[in-house]
Design brief:
The chain contains two helices and three strands, in the order ββαβα. By secondary structure, it is α+β, with helices and mostly antiparallel strands. It has a domain at about 25-90. A three-stranded antiparallel sheet has the order 1-2-3, with no helix packed on it.
């Protein structure tokens, strides 16, 4: 009987240009015994109607931009990768251009 051959490889995204980037500044997380669901939303400053609704309903609705379900086994690697990238980001001096117009 032959020994199984081990192959090492790195997975990299194949980035086709037609896949749009999606902006989200809020993530709601839920889980089942089998997977995690990450629901990404874009929260914009509320208008007067949104504020009135939030006062009565105690909720501010945000449009969902993407919902991603990942298996439970994937989550520890995701957390580790995010922590590594946050550490690298924090250690790198950020060059931020001053705004062209005042920020209110």
């Amino acid at each position: 009987m032959s020994k199984p051959k081990q192959v090492n490889f790195t997975i990299v995204p194949d980035e086709p240009s037609e896949i749009p980037r999606i902006y989200a500044n809020f993530c709601a997380i839920s889980h089942t015994p089998f997977d995690f669901t990450l629901t990404f939303c874009e929260v914009l400053p509320p208008n007067e109607n949104d504020v009135r609704h939030a006062e009565t309903e105690q909720q501010l609705r945000a449009p969902i931009r993407s919902r991603i379900v990942v298996p439970m086994q994937f989550v520890p690697n995701l957390i580790t990768a995010l922590q590594e990238h946050l550490r690298a980001f924090s250690e790198t001096p950020q060059k931020v251009a001053p705004p062209k117009t005042p920020i209110h």
